[in-house]
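Re: S-adenosyl-L-homocysteine structure - here you go.
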Amino acid sequence: MKKIIAIIGAMKEEITPILEYFKKYETISLGENTYYKLEYQNSIIIIAYSKIGKIHSALTCSTMILHFNANYVIFSGVAGGLREDLKVGDIILATSLCQYDVDITAFGHKLGFIPESKIYINTNESLNCIAKKVAKKQNINLKYGIIASGDSFVFDNAKKQWIIDNFNASAVEMEGASIAVVSSLCDIPFCIIRSISDSADNNANISFDEFLLESASRSAKFVISMVDEIVKE
Ligand code: SAH
């Protein structure tokens, strides 16, 4: 089966380094998103940024899988670090994703739980192995952990602590969980790579603006190396 690899970012800045690397691609407009398609070593790569948030990224991921027939999904972008040891520029691989803003506890459900779904959705083991292999080859101290997603930019110490306490999350962002839900429901292997842009604390917006480009391009570079491994397999 031909490999069709979807690379998704949330913001333009997150995919620009990837487009600059591949240089030549076909441009397809769909659902007010632009999809960039190219042939690479007998495989097809489709790249897009979804716009921020879980709904936009769910649409882009669904389009990648159901329209473009992607059989791998990789997200590349930036995130807020929740753990002490996660510094700006570090790369984190999500072991699982959750939606910290889902709350139907009024009916006795656990925080983050939706009936017929799960609180935590695991990422794909083989793709994660490829990420670990890339990290090893490039001497990158790859971090792992739960990533929590929600439709807010977290820049508040109390909210940050609440997410850590309730979800044991290592990083926070706004799209990973929707990519996880869509990919897992469609039975497509996916993984989420994020480089830290801020610490989701009271200073996070300043840090984000300062480090977005640098961290986005670190993540992008890492994902390009993963693609090289995938197409070789
Ligand atoms: N500056 C942008 C908005 C960025 S929102 C603008 O004005 O348009 C933050 C984006 O980076 C989201 O896509 C999210 O996935 C990620 N992110 C990075 N740090 C985050 C944090 N502390 N909380 C939530 N999302 C964060």
